[in-house]
Predict the 3D structure of the following.
Amino acid sequence: MMVRELSFKNLPFVPVEEQVIYVEPSYDKKLNDFIQDNYEWLRTTFRSHELDFCYLPLLAEEAISYNAPHLTDRQSKEKAKHVPSLTTYLEGDALDGPVLVFGHDWQTTEDGGHVILQAMPVKTSLFSPARHTFSALAQEIQHLYHSQEIAREEETSEYYPQEKDCIRFSIGPRTVDADDDFDIESKRLIDEIKTRIQSLRNRGVNTLFLHDIIDEGEQISRLRVTKDFRLFLIDYANMEIKMPVLPKSVFILFLRHPEGIRFKELSDYYSELLEIYLKMNPIGGRSKQESSIRDVTDPCSNSINEKCARIREAFVANFDDRLAKNYYVTGKRGEAKRILLDKKMVLWED
């Protein structure tokens, strides 16, 4: 398939490798209907070729909902209509039909304001139905990536000798206070979690153009805690936040103590945390339940860091960290950890 280069000016995001974006000069109803009706199939097909298929109209809705959870579905859809097409930033010859644009081996011109991307045309016919066309495009783009990577490796190897295996040294086991590794461990676990929500948070194209479309002010929701400890964000369309029992028990404990708790003093809260845990999880071996809570309240254990990371995951998986940070356990090293949400925003059911 023919590959061409396109030049974009003042593109409001940095292209991400393996990202393939559908772009059209004018609305093609047949192709748009196909993409929307087969979106999951397209995502899966391109993932099988280590690519990320991006369709801006749907991604815009997801990104707007993720960044502004206070909006209703109808409001998110309406705001998504105002997301401009990439053709707005296209320079030179206009497109003569739909294309897939991708940023592998992308180049920035000397003045820094122009980005050159590669593109392949999307052409369907009676003899080449849409599914066959997109499957072939995914395979062709992956092949192109692979060829470019080989060429780049061969070019690099002429100048840099291959590294030999190295011996990795270890300083051995050490005893660490849980508070010392709070930020490090939390970030490590969140990095693992990000792979599941990366399409909504960290890839520039999925949140591009949104700054002028949604209000990024901190519209924080009230939190309702039911008798059976279910968590609902009232002002985010009554969104329910779900998490495993142990992390939720830790969350309720910190929610009960807005003044904060030092990790090294967690053992003082053993009985209270066990009481919360047993209410949520009354069935099970008592000795095992007590052991789980001992691990969480042990200041030399990593268990509390993991539980706090899972709490953070539960919120960040649903909306942007700009808002989520008000709901998970946070704090500086050596200081009491706490949930930032004002206690007046927490509604406890009797």
